[in-house]
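Q: what sequence does this backbone want?
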């Protein structure tokens, strides 16, 4: 029996992990009561008694939980931003390369990618790795997400009676270009500068569409839009959860894969102006689904267990 402690079960990601693992007969889940969830002694006991610890906490609290771990056998999976650019932690996106998958498998510390970052990195990392674009390419990224990405407070705002009429419209945020996913997007892809990033939250519960445009004339390798599509199809050919679509539709919904751990990559546009898009669930491949997938790999299990 695998003992799992979810530190921060009350948040959206923690609740989703609990739901995904709750029906498994190889998992025993523990969590703390509302009274004890901020009690350092109680948290420390739970952390050191577990086989796997999921951290679904703000950054400072996640770092604190790591400091409480004295049992060197405990595996920690952090869903916060705290350790995503820390080279001593494995980055929890196994499909990026065989090296990423191997590091997750042997590591006791894994950082789960951010939701917006997952989409951007799924598109840009392969391009940089294949020498198709230079690390100094001036990337722009647009991302549309459901409101569940904002956590319990934002969910309550969107689902409240008599809510603000502004919530009826898509809303761009992160306008200062200081979004917390930017350092991760730059570091993981090996870029020289952060992209111009335009995240947008809209009036649907879950799902995400991350779009990256490319100028054909700025590519390091001369490639057509069909060449790019074939490249992505070959790059992710062995993936269980990532599929490259045959074509990009005229209308691309962001909630197409809501409720799954799957991701679909679209390549469209023309040879001069290429459009890349990554569609997935911000609560699935963008959060709890990715966390459970990493847990399965760390335990030597089929990565698809309890995931759609």
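A:
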């Amino acid at each position: 029996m695998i003992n799992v402690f979810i530190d921060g079960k009350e948040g959206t990601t923690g609740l989703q992990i609990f739901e995904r693992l709750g029906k498994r007969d190889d998992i025993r889940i523990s969590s703390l009561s509302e009274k004890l969830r901020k009690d350092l002694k109680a948290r420390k006991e739970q952390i050191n008694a577990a086989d796997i610890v999921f951290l679904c906490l703000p950054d400072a609290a996640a770092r604190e939980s790591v400091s409480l771990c004295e049992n060197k056998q405990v595996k920690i999976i952090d869903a916060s931003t705290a350790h995503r650019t820390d080279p001593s932690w494995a980055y929890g996106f196994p499909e990026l390369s065989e090296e990423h998958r191997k590091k997750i498998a042997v590591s006791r510390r894994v950082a789960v990618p951010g939701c917006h970052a997952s989409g951007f990195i799924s598109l840009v990392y392969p391009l940089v790795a294949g020498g198709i674009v230079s690390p100094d390419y001036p990337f722009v990224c647009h991302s549309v997400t459901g409101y569940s990405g904002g956590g319990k407070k934002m969910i309550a705002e969107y689902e409240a009676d008599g809510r603000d009429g502004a919530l009826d419209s898509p809303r761009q945020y992160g306008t200062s270009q200081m979004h917390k996913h930017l350092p991760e997007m730059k570091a993981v892809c090996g870029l020289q500068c952060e992209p111009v990033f335009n995240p947008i939250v809209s009036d649907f519960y879950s799902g995400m569409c991350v779009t990256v445009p490319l100028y054909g004339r700025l590519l390091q390798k001369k490639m057509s839009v069909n060449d790019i599509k074939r490249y992505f199809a070959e790059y992710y050919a062995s993936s269980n959860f990532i599929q490259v679509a045959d074509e990009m539709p005229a209308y691309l919904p962001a909630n197409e894969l809501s409720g799954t751990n799957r991701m679909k990559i679209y390549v469209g546009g023309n040879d001069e102006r290429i459009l890349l898009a990554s569609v997935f669930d911000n609560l699935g491949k963008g959060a709890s689904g990715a966390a459970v997938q990493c847990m399965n790999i760390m335990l030597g299990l089929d990565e698809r267990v309890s995931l759609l």
